[in-house]
What we know:
The protein has about 350 residues and is α+β, with helices and mostly antiparallel strands. It contains 15 helices and seven strands. The strands form two sheets. A five-stranded antiparallel β-sheet has the order 4-6-7-3-5. Strands 1-2 form a two-stranded antiparallel sheet. A hairpin with a 6-residue loop joins strand 6 and strand 7.
Amino acid sequence: MQSLNSFILRIVCCFPLFIGIVYAAEQDLVERPEVRQFIDQMVRKHQFNDNELTQLLSQARIQKKIIAIISKPAESKPWYEYRPIFITSRRITGGVEFWRKNKEPLTRAYEIYGVPPQIIIAILGVETFYGRQKGDYRMLDSLATLAFDYPPRSKFFTSELEQYLLMTREEKIDPLTITGSYAGAMGKAQFISSSYRQYAVDFDNDGKRDLWDNNADAIGSVAHYLNVHGWKKGQPVASRVAVDATIDTTLLNNGLKPNASVSYLKESGVHIKDAVADDQQAALISLETKSEPEYWVGYNNFYVITRYNHSALYAMVVYQLSEEILAESNHNMAALMH
């Protein structure tokens, strides 16, 4: 009993020291030169109040687990592991239900921006499961962690932290209250701060841009983003193809942007069955399966989807989910008419 009392006494005596260590660690962020430089820049460039911004950033918490997660994104998985994450019966039926409940803004988005409803729905489905999984990381923590403790993308995320602080000031939102993804994406559409400022729209004209709880604003904002990045109404997205064994492999290493005409690809041993104009530009894509590679060609609209997330896997899963949602929706409509 005496040894236990001695142990408790030692803990109690050391407790103020422990609290002081934690407090000092929490204060360290705003004392770091790069953070001080950031604060000075925000004061000088955007007229933020020095004391207020210092006090705000002192409440940011560096999250080491964010560094671990961003170092191994889902897009690093092979296609045969990545696809089943998103192409599920629940996500397909959820997309059909979302379409039924939001038909008016989806139709209007198509009329204004030219983006089909199923593409918009699929992006919202992949990003947040139609708003169910918006992320629970505090945005200030995510952006501070990646801006100041993740050197490979420090420049980008420092800029996003700047955009976040501007966005919350403009939208009159408390920057401590917003949660999102580990990489600083927010709301149903998972816009990063710069995209929110530039592409978010008030699609129901209620006086505010709300991507967290307003489906109309999320729908309009996704459509606006794709439209600005070059979406072409009525144009194809992608085609499943076969290739000759002698195909020039350099065609597979030219990036995501369409870089060859359909006629050239055909001449090079790519067999495209879909009715596509010969002068249509496309990029040849190889997807890893458990056996032989799966080949596709992605057209301009496929590339536009990659502007949302710079990954062929992402764009392909959005496209395939959109096709599944469209097919299921048409099936349900046909069943109702009989």
